[in-house]
Design brief:
Order of helices and strands: HEEHEHEEEEEH
Number of strands: 8
Number of helices: 4
Mean pLDDT: 85
Low-confidence stretches: 153-183
CATH class of the largest domain: Mainly Beta
Radius of gyration: 18 Å
Length: 183
């Protein structure tokens, strides 16, 4: 297990005890300091008070358990409307939504896809891009995130609809301008 996996195992119950879900966690070294970013979610949304409360509890657990031996910065926030999707259950919650996917290796000559998430099937993401349905293996995905959609498409997408500016059929090709990476 990686350090991030160990931290997620340690901290998921702490976040859950605060009425939130640990959506994802990032752990990285930045010079002599470490950076721990925790993204939390809740059915009612995430408020600043939620972030503060989770931050205090996580900090207390980290002080006691001491899994990070170097100095570190702790950041707690919502995953946002354009949240990254990591786990099958996260993808399942966004069936019907627009998603952008970047693969580790090209599939049918491309690494980037953007379309409507139609479901999960035997470990594959079912993605509708214009008139073509792609089955993309979950383990081949480097990065996937929700693409917010504004307007009438929200009603068509059902419960998974989110707000933003991309319509069904818009394709995220291999051009760098629509890269899903945010660093």
């Amino acid at each position: 297990m990686s350090r991030a996996d160990d931290l997620e195992t340690l901290l998921a119950p702490v976040v859950a005890a605060q009425g939130c879900e640990l959506w994802s966690l990032e752990f990285s070294m930045q010079g002599r300091r470490s950076l721990l970013r925790i993204f939390i979610d809740s059915p009612a949304g995430v408020s600043l008070d939620d972030c503060e409360r989770v931050s205090r509890q996580v900090s207390a657990v980290l002080d006691v358990e001491d899994p990070i031996t170097s100095a570190y910065t702790l950041e707690v926030s919502s995953p946002g409307l354009d949240r990254q999707l990591h786990k099958p259950e996260q993808f399942a919650r966004y069936i019907g939504a627009m998603v952008a996917v970047k693969l580790r290796m090209p599939y049918q000559g491309r690494r980037r896809f953007q379309g409507r998430l139609n479901g999960l099937e035997d470990g594959d993401l079912v993605l509708q891009v214009e008139d073509t349905e792609f089955l993309l293996p979950l383990d081949a995905i480097d990065k996937a995130q929700v693409v917010p959609v504004f307007g009438a498409a929200e009603e068509q997408a059902g419960d998974a609809a989110v707000t933003g500016a991309v319509r069904e059929g818009d394709v995220m090709g291999d051009e760098p301008a629509r890269d899903a990476d945010h660093k």
